Amino acid sequence: MQPIKFLMKKLFFPILWAGILFCNACAVKQARLPEMENYLFQEPKRNRIYQIINYQDKDKGVEIPVWVSRYLDEGISGVEALNEYNGRYIFMAENTGINVRTLQQWSAAFSLYQDFPRKVASRIEKRLLKAAVNYPDDEYGDFFEESVKAASDAYYTGAVQEGEFWLLQQYFEEDGVTVGQEFYIFLVLISIDKSLMENQILQIINNIDIEHKPTKEQASAVSQIKGNFFENF
């Protein structure tokens, strides 16, 4: 029963956010994380071989920004290691597909107010999952679900949209020779002062209203994760 329970928990948040997006799409934004129109599109795995065949302003002689290369090669940690982002957390909004017009609409409609909270909530969820010894709902009780929900509903100050960039990538099959599918990747770079971000997250997780009283073990796990929440965050 525990694996089923964990699976249901893992499915809860994507379903919840999908519902929120559907309900608010017309009222809040004109274009919000639109679905890829071609159902045959499958996002390639990160570890597959690819080459960049086009990118934003390539025809003008512009080079790919360092933060883009770092993100593609090393992920968020690579971008945060850059001197220009010293003392700041980096969040990356990313969308991929084969319909460039749809992706352009997504990029143009991106909103820190609407979209940044979901990036924070996702990072908090990953932090809790990474630290959990048992299934997260068993490990933390209601704290797991409520902290992610609270983070997704919160209003954050201090976040800065640093830049946007797109690339067209050509992927290869596992043999490294056979040409596979081309796809676009659109990125939005967001940064925020670490101290400011940490204070806001601590305020969120310290003020969560828990419906069910945690067990002694759960209370201990929650206390421990709160004490070192930003290690490897």
Number of domains: 1
* Helical percentage: 40-55%
How many strand segments? 4
Q: How do the strands of the widest beta sheet line up side by side? A: 1-3-4-2
Average pLDDT, rounded to a whole number, is 83
How far the N terminus sits from the C terminus, by CA atoms, comes to 30 Å
User: What is the N-to-C succession of helices and strands?
Assistant: HEHHEHHHHEEHH
Into which percentage range does the β-strand content fall?
A: 15-25%
Q: Helix segment count?
A: 9
Shape: elongated
Helix/sheet category: alpha+beta
Largest sheet: 4 strands, antiparallel
Q: In terms of per-residue confidence, which ranges show pLDDT below 50 for 5 or more consecutive residues? A: 1-44
Cα Rg: 19 Å
Polypeptide structure, described:
With 233 residues, the chain is α+β, with helices and mostly antiparallel strands. It has one domain (32-227). 48% of the residues lie in helices and 19% in strands. It is built from nine helices and four strands; from the N terminus they run αβααβααααββαα. The protein has helices spanning 2-28, 66-74, 76-80, 100-109, 112-131, 136-140, 142-153, 194-206, 216-227; strands at 50-55, 88-97, 160-172, 179-193. It has a four-stranded antiparallel beta sheet with strand order 1-3-4-2. Strand 3 and strand 4 form a beta hairpin. The two termini are 30 Å apart. 20% of the residues are buried. Mean pLDDT is 83; it is low at 1-44.
